[in-house]
Specification:
The complex is a heterotrimer. Helix content of chain A is 42%, strand content 19%. By secondary structure, chain A is an alpha/beta fold. Chain B is mostly helical. Chain B has two domains: 79 residues, no CATH class; 256 residues, ABC transporter involved in vitamin B12 uptake, BtuC, CATH 1.10.3470. Classes of the chains: A alpha/beta, B mainly alpha, C mainly alpha.
Chain lengths: 358, 367, 306
């Protein structure tokens, strides 16, 4: 038994040395950690699609490796360290909760580049941060909702009260108010990013309370399916969900991380990678709208025009005059909100009756 | 053909020692088949699983970090399970311990002194024990089943933590993200051997707790009381033991240790409070407790083995590209083999032929 | 469809998977076996139901396959705990780990695929009745199965000889064995019934509730089902009451939010759990009733002495 074990270990050692030797020369190792399973068909799924885009773009020049379902905390630090030690040249840490672990590990591996999504700490030269302006897409959705809703009330299924979600709700409302000043929104916090059954329940509750259009900042396709069943319209989230509700989805905000990942990996290959803080939107191709469907031509035209204006940089959803919920002035006529202010948004704009649960 | 168990007159010391190795052998064989079916090199896969994580010092540190909460909670639970108290809410006690233990660095960050850390640890224990005492109180006072109450309180604790870090305890300089302020240096649990890795004193607490509880369970009257009341409350009453007091004792010990694990995790490994601080340690520790045969020293070994299976799973994912699901299925399989091998300690296994069975039944009776 | 009717329908949908899984586990526990693997068996049912329905085009085939896979999967637990007398708690938890892993592997191809929905019943005329029409006559078939299952299990356990036998095995396996009852065989059957029910509950999620496959889509509902069995002090109709109470409070809190009550959502979300605890505290004060219903051999291993 013991002898067998020893020879087994020896064989394995030879084997692993062999693979390491082969690895040393060629492809650039590109790595990622995801907070959820890549099978969530939502947030982590989309990040993984971005990684697959990298593989497709570079082919044999890169090798991708990832860890999914990584808990935020010591597990993340270990996962990042292991990836760094396994020869990764660049590591994408794709969830906010990975912020401190990313910076800690980055300190120990100055030659590895770290990219942290949705956070704000860049404590070392080899840490960059990136995020996408999903609220730009939500503004467009708001415009469509304002036009399409007969009752002028939308249902909004939200996940957690963090700035990203709150800025999304505000942008949606600003879009809706731009075509219907009396527009209302009912908000339900699901306290989860993904739980299809609970999201479906939330959608049903909202519809029962009289909303006739549904939008969501949770990941599953369930709310859209409920909308289809009840004969109202809705919006997709994270990916194009038209397959799930062909006669219901108006459009969807597609998280397209591919272009950014390809750009950053290229920079590593070229040796030109530098620390940055990128907040890309429609202009950069990070936020893509799924085709506008199930709406009259005039609404479609308005949506496309709005999208075009945001894309060209001509229009920013957070442009004054905008008042806060309590009626106090936030932005003066023509004033555009600072990115830094939007990124930590923690208040509702006027016209939203809900209270932020924190 | 069917399998029949024959009880050994006394439990086998040989198989007690041998069973982990039998389990390992079975896991290696089954694992090799599974990885071969998935088109991966089985030798390499198993090497990555069981040896690679033990090869480097940093990785050993990580093993200690991962195992510490599992052991700490697991040894506490052993007292519960031995005394027949079904505490499956250690996850909640872990969370509340972390919350109460964090009061000082979060609410009074200016108070910086060496005394902060001891107070934090103490509050962590108190918090976990207090939360554990709720199911105990309901069980003793209202006869409420503790399986339900302790489990439901897990969800309540998770939501409470969520509310705290998004609301009143949110870091004022944190751009409204859901985290408390980072703990100051006096509130951080020190590393054991800072030069070689980041394992902290949490692991030392786990080992100390295991030794203390081992002594308590096997060398003291209290240990005897725990086991008697667990096996037969009636017999315990005749011996003059109080079942109600035992319920509180068991929940306070396991809750307190879960709370200590919680504050150690937050103060040692995370450095602040955030919405999710545990990937289900309180539940995994239940497996660890039984895997260690409810013996505190066995639980230390079980905690290390389970931690190794997490680390090995990650190594296999990175190097072989097998998915996280394969790692989890493999973990389930490993547990099955370990549990099944333990059967050999108490029983001999006989294969009985189908036709022979009825005739063979009588003569083999050993009652 | 009126608002009240619609809310009741939503509650029925939320309660049905909990009820089915809990009824199955109730029979398992009444036979003296504690299977904490409900979540794992449920997720296996969900992925099987979805996959078979998608590939064959028949949701009913999906349902049957899910029931079958649930039962077969539970056999693994049965073999370990009943034949090899491993610890039931640990084995059940390991079964959950295994189920989550295998379902994730098996479901990789189904991610992002719209699934099939099990058609709901529609009795012309009756299902158009106000308030109760859809509720009583226009729901999905599995809803009716869940009610029938509750009635059948209640009848079986307390009105038939076989039910009495099963309960006696759970109450005192040693005396049951002395009376010549095949303890292990009965427990195998109970465990498989529990697995089949969990499989059906999983299929309900992926074919009726939300026709889609997402990893971990059971999201802890197996655990709630386990708690409901205890909540019901092992009585079938109380399981039904518990499932509808839990479902009702869960849906109620969403309505409260949509209505805008201004209470933190985390507090509202914790209401179903707190409500279950409070109600159980109230009903379990009757010590005698609880004693009578608790299977005394629950979780204890049994090896026939010959």
């Amino acid at each position: 038994m013991k002898k067998a074990l020893v020879s087994f270990a020896a064989a394995a050692a030879v084997l692993s040395l062999g693979t390491m030797g082969a690895m040393a020369q060629d492809p650039t190792k590109v790595c990622a950690i995801y907070v959820g399973p890549i099978g969530d068909y939502g947030y982590s799924y989309q990040h993984h699609q971005g990684m697959l885009d990298v593989k497709e773009h570079f082919g044999d020049k890169v090798e991708i490796s990832y860890l999914e379902n990584v808990a935020e905390g010591p597990d993340a630090e270990r996962a990042l360290e292991r990836l760094a030690r396994s020869g990764c040249k660049i590591v994408f840490a794709t969830s906010f909760g990975f912020m401190d672990p990313t910076n800690k590990v980055a300190a120990r591996f100055p030659d590895v580049k770290f990219e942290h999504a949705t956070g704000y700490k860049r404590e070392h030269e080899n840490v960059s941060t990136y995020n996408s302006k999903f609220h730009e897409g939500r503004y467009v959705q708001g415009v469509i909702a304002g036009k399409m809703s007969e009752k002028g009330v939308a249902g909004y299924i939200a996940s957690f009260p963090i700035p990203e979600v709150i800025m999304g709700i505000n942008a949606f409302m600003l879009g809706a108010q731009s075509v219907n000043p009396d527009f209302k929104v009912k908000i339900v916090w699901a306290n989860t990013w993904i739980d299809p059954a609970k999201e479906a329940d939330a959608a049903k509750a909202l519809i029962d309370q009289g909303v006739d259009i549904i939008t969501q900042h949770t990941d599953s396709t369930a709310p859209l399916q409920v909308a289809a069943e009840r004969g109202i319209k809705g919006f997709g989230q994270a990916s194009d969900m038209i397959k799930f509700a062909p006669e219901t989805q108006l459009t969807s905000i597609v998280d397209d991380w591919g272009p950014y990942y390809i750009e950053r990996v290229q920079a590593v290959i070229d040796g030109s990678w530098k620390q940055s803080d990128v907040w890309g939107g429609m202009k950069e191709g990070h936020v893509v709208m799924a085709p506008y469907t199930n709406m009259p031509d005039d609404v479609k035209k308005l949506a496309e025009e709005t999208e075009a204006k945001i894309k060209s940089g001509e229009f920013n959803p957070f442009t004054g005059p905008i008042s806060k919920q309590d009626g106090s002035e936030w932005l003066k006529e023509g004033e555009v909100a600072e990115d830094s202010e939007v990124l930590q948004m923690n208040f509702y704009i006027k016209g939203i009756d809900d209270k932020i649960p924190n | 053909m069917r399998i029949e168990l024959v009880k050994r007159p006394q439990h086998s010391a040989l198989f007690s020692a041998l069973s982990p190795f039998i389990a390992l052998a079975l896991t290696l064989v089954a694992g090799a088949i599974m990885f071969a079916l998935l088109g991966k090199n089985p030798v390499q896969a198993l090497y990555l699983y069981f040896i690679d994580p033990l090869r480097e010092v940093w990785s050993l540190h990580e093993l200690a970090i991962k195992a510490a909460p599992l052991i700490l909670i697991g040894v506490g639970l052993s007292v519960c399970f031995l005394s027949n108290n079904w505490n499956i809410g250690a996850e909640g006690q872990f969370i509340v311990g972390a919350i109460i233990g964090s009061i000082l660095p979060v609410l009074f960050p200016e108070f910086q002194s060496w005394i902060v850390l001891p107070i934090m640890l103490l509050l962590g224990i108190v918090g976990g024990a207090a939360y554990g005492s709720i199911p105990a109180l309901l069980k003793v006072r209202f006869n409420t089943n503790e399986i339900l109450t302790s489990l439901m309180l897990v969800y309540v604790a998770q939501l409470f933590l969520d509310w705290l870090v998004r609301g009143p305890w949110r870091n004022p300089e944190g751009f409204n993200f859901p985290q408390t302020r980072s703990f100051h240096e006096f509130a951080i649990l020190p590393e054991l051997l800072p030069a070689s890795g980041r394992a902290n004193w949490g692991f030392a607490f786990a080992i100390i707790a295991a030794i203390v509880l081992w002594f308590l369970l096997s060398k003291t009257l209290k240990g005897f009381e725990i086991k008697v009341l667990g096996q037969s409350p009636r017999a315990g009453r005749f011996a003059g033991f109080s079942n109600a007091r035992m319920v509180f004792f068991a929940f306070l010990v396991s809750g307190g240790l879960a709370g200590l694990a919680g504050i150690s995790e937050v103060s040692g490994a995370i450095g602040h409070l955030q919405p999710s601080i545990s990937p289900g340690y309180g539940f995994t520790a239940i497996i660890v407790a039984f895997l260690g045969r409810l013996n505190p020293l066995g639980i230390v070994a079980a905690g290390l083995v389970l931690a190794l299976s997490y680390l090995g799973g990650e190594a296999a994912q990175i190097s072989l590209g097998v998915s996280d699901k394969v790692a989890r299925a493999f973990q389930g399989m490993l547990l099955f083999f370990v549990l099944a091998s333990d059967t050999l300690i108490h029983y001999r296994i006989r294969l009985v032929g189908r036709q022979a069975a009825p005739a063979a039944e009588a003569p083999h009776g050993n009652a | 469809m009126g608002m009240l009717e619609s809310i009741l329908l939503t509650i029925a949908t939320a309660a049905t998977p909990l009820l089915i899984a809990a009824i199955g586990e109730l029979v398992v526990e009444r036979s003296g076996v504690l299977n904490l693997g409900v979540e794992g068996m449920m997720i296996m049912g969900a992925v099987t139901g979805f996959g078979v329905a998608l590939t064959t085009g028949s949701p009913w085939l999906g349902v049957f396959a899910a029931i079958l896979v649930g039962a077969v999967f539970s056999l693994l637990f049965g073999f370990l705990t009943l034949t090899l007398v491993t610890n039931q708690v640990a084995t059940g938890l390991a079964l959950t780990l295994l189920g989550l892993g295998i379902s994730g592997m098996a479901g990789e191809a189904f991610v992002g695929q719209p699934g099939l929905r099990l058609a709901r019943l529609d009795i012309p005329g009756l299902s158009d009745l106000p308030v109760v029409g859809r509720l009583l006559f226009g729901q999905d078939p599995i809803f009716y199965i869940s009610i029938a299952l509750t009635a059948a299990v209640a009848y079986f356990l307390f009105r038939t000889r076989a039910g009495l036998t099963l309960r006696s095995v759970g109450d005192n396996h040693t005396s049951a064995h002395a009376l010549g009852i095949k303890v292990i065989a009965i427990r195998y059957m109970a465990v498989m019934f529990g697995g089949a029910c969990a499989g059906l509950a999983g299929a309900y999620l992926s074919l009726v509730y939300t026709p889609q496959w997402v990893e971990n889509m059971t999201a802890g509902r197996g655990w709630i089902a386990l708690a409901l069995v205890v909540f019901a002090s092992w009585r079938p109709w109380r399981v039904l009451a518990g499932a509808y109470l839990f479902g009702g409070v869960s849906i109620g809190q969403l309505h409260a939010q949509a209505f805008g009550v201004g209470i933190p959502s985390q507090l509202l979300s914790s209401l179903p759990y707190l409500a279950t605890v409070v109600v159980l505290v109230i009903i379990s004060r009757n010590r005698r009733l609880t004693m009578v219903n608790t299977p005394a051999s629950l979780g204890r291993p049994f090896v026939p002495d010959r």
